[in-house]
């Protein structure tokens, strides 16, 4: 794997070179001073991953990544930046697969690049071939794309965001249902879309709209599969809330790990919805079998050697452009040993939350490899929640 680092400051590139030399890894590395030099390099040499600074004279990081996306779409695009300005970061959403904050420990950088390559392998590899047999996967919800565009363009106003969401009455209704549910509720009732926008903020709004839109897409198809849409939605919210609660406050990039844990938990079973749309007969049969045998759906899926709903969901979110961390956590939520690294990250949080909400023990072998301090911390959180009054515990 070849990784290209781009920065306008030679001393930053030299420091990266030294750090990677001290901690050698399996990648070939190259360095480019500025966007133009990076594009030049990519014209001459194939490259798997680009890691770029955000603010550079001439061509900045988002513009460089936009051009790379157009000319070399298979290259993984990562931002490594000291910028914490939310407006600036928003410009890179949609063109960057992953954000990293400077200073970034070399172990974190290595893990992120390795994960990016594992996710690309997932998208290109055997799962893709298996999924090829499934007729059609749902397309990315239009409202989600529009919200992404509005959020990336500039600081969109609450009115603009609300007017985008209001275009679809069914999705608006489901968004309000989610935002006002006992499981999600974060202080006060949400009765209109604009309040939801203001209270939730752009990122959470976008994720909830994505979830609401996918549920709406699957509503009719789900009826024939024996699965209950309201139960699935409540389950998704409970996994999301628990994953967010147990994910560590430290994160791999801007915004920390908790928001991503919530998103990945919310979308962990999005593959079930995708299969309801794409292969309802198969889903109905497997769901009936799982119920008759009193085993979880993924066990029946794996016994049939088809892709599980987890893999279908991870694949779908990868194609839709969600972050590598989310894709990995969703694709592996029933097979956590496939996660890159053994820190207690988003993948671990979603696996543990999903298992506990399903009433099953998390994978003991995997958990044994996680840091002891994190396991103790999660135990404390869980016992505090058990001791809390029902409303707070549900949240
Ligand atoms: Fe699942």
Question: Explain this structure to me?
Answer:
There is one protein chain. The protein has 395 residues and is an alpha/beta fold. It has two domains: 2-124, Rossmann fold, CATH 3.40.50; 134-394, Hypothetical protein af1432. The protein contains 21 helices and five strands. It has helices spanning 10-22, 35-44, 61-71, 86-92, 106-124, 126-132, 142-153, 158-166, 169-179, 193-223, 229-246, 258-266, 270-278, 280-293, 297-303, 309-320, 324-331, 346-358, 364-369, 372-387, 390-394, and strands at residues 2-7, 28-33, 49-52, 76-81, 98-101. It has a five-stranded parallel beta sheet with strand order 2-1-3-4-5, with helices on both faces. Helix 4 links the parallel strand 4 (76-81) and strand 5. Helix 9 crosses helix 10. It is globular and about 60 Å long. The model is unreliable at 251-256 and 390-395 (pLDDT under 50). Bound molecules: fe (ii) ion. Fe (ii) ion (FE2) binds next to helix 16.
